[in-house]
Amino acid sequence: MQKPSSQPTSTSGVLGRGTYSESLRIGAILRKETVGGILLVITAAAAIIWANSPAADSYFALRDFTFGYEPWHLELSLGAWAADGLLAIFFFLVGLELKREFVAGDLRSPAKAIVPVAAAVGGVIVPALVYVAINLASPDTLRGWAIPTATDIAFAVAVLAIVGSHLPAALRIFLLTLAVVDDLLAITIIAVFYSDDLSVTPLLLALIPLALYTVLAQKYRQFFHLKPAAAWFILLPIGFVVWALVHAGGIHATVAGVLLGFAVPVLHRKGTAGPDAGPGLAELFEHRVRPLSAGFAVPVFAFFSAGVTVGGWTGFVSAITDPVTLGIVLGLVAGKPIGIVGTTWLLTKLTRVNLDPALRWMDLVGVALLAGIGFTVSLLIADLSFTPDGSTNDHAKVGVLTASLLAALIASILLRARNRRYRAIEAEERVDADHDGIPDVYQEPGRESAETVTAPDPDADTPGNRPGTR
């Protein structure tokens, strides 16, 4: 018999819990991102210290050291390899997560997707407008309008781990969904607005290996005799060719990572699901790529990108008063939460969707402030917006670092103030009075019965073993 709750536990509306399988999957992802987020903070701090030390010249010499094959447009500096190459690994995971969310996750339902997607869009538009308003009188700096639109989920999760927040499943799912949709919007912005000197021939040629990659990925069980591990060794070189051609074509190479992620199937094919099907290709790739991305690719990028010479207190004051810096700081710290919370509030007024009664608007504000931690993608867009060796680029990075720290600090204060309530919700979500392995709050009347039969593997590539390959 289900144990009654002392608080309303609505599962519909804004910040509803969603399904148990989705809660498990999101929790597993965020636990993996925590270590990467802490490494990200450490490497960024090391870069800032080194770049402002007496040995600063050696840092910039290392960052600007070039190698590669020039005829393929691949003679790049270490910093460029990190931004164009290593971040493509990160965006490959973004593509996988986006596809999983909209094909196998809770966001396959338009009714569940509309609020977080709309909130993410609001969280991109408002910061951009804030930046443009502050820099309107300076056309040369308007190119950086997209810098304050990004969210760094790894850094945000690291903040949660450090402050010890017992953030409820609903808030965690909402935060990750915001970040994933935000990444999609960011990569779209990069592809459309930050692609220069396009070369049609390499881009057309890239379609050939991309098509081959897609076919092999979709039919990997036939081609590789039900051994996904074999697919890894075949698809990786093909993916590199796609990346190299997209890079040569003038589109930022991280776009190739997203496209390759989209091509990987996230569900088992009909007839191969079940306990004997083995891991799916998306699961295999995620297990192998996520540690590489969170533990190496993103921290190394942060190390080469975050190293900016501040110039002491005088230099910091000069940077912080620059309209570029002000636009970024206000865009991330104020524009992000205003866009996210404002759009969500507007939806509650225009539709029948209401805030889950177990939570408060302050909770949404705290999550929206975490979304104001731009960092990784914001640093990338700063490098694409301004000349890397110019003072404007340095000031933009000071803005990104300052805004991310401010957003993290304010969010930590708000979320810690609510930790007692979060612990109560967390305890409620663990109650399993009928001992069937599924918490009782996920078995309330009206929830999907298919999601309450068994507790799925949070890392599985299909929460319900649905047929079909997508």
Structure description:
The chain is mainly α. The protein has one domain (20-195, 252-452): Na+/H+ antiporter like fold. The chain has helices at 20-51, 56-63, 78-103, 110-135, 153-163, 169-193, 200-218, 220-223, 228-248, 254-263, 281-306, 312-320, 323-350, 361-370, 376-385, 391-417, 419-430; strands spanning 66-67, 76-77. Strands 1-2 form a two-stranded antiparallel sheet. Helix 1 (20-51) packs across helix 5 (153-163) and helix 7 runs antiparallel to helix 9. The model is unreliable at 1-12, 271-278 and 445-470 (pLDDT under 50).
Provide a compact summary of the structure.
The protein is an all-alpha fold and 470 residues long.
Topology (elements, then pairings):
Elements lengths: L19 H32 L4 H8 L2 E2 L8 E2 H26 L6 H26 L17 H11 L5 H25 L6 H19 L1 H4 L4 H21 L5 H10 L17 H26 L5 H9 L2 H28 L10 H10 L5 H10 L5 H27 L1 H12 L40
Antiparallel strand pairs: 1-2
Helix pairs in contact: 1-5, 1-6, 1-11, 3-6, 3-10, 3-11, 4-6, 4-13, 6-14, 7-9, 9-10, 11-15, 13-14, 13-16, 14-16, 15-16
Kindly report the CATH topology: Na+/H+ antiporter like fold
The main pleated sheet reads as: 2 strands, antiparallel
Radius of gyration: 22 Å
**SSE pattern:** HHEEHHHHHHHHHHHHHHH
Number of strands: 2
CATH architecture: Up-down Bundle
Low-confidence stretches: 1-12, 271-278, 445-470
Keywords:
single chain, 470 residues, disordered N terminus, 17 helices, Na+/H+ antiporter like fold
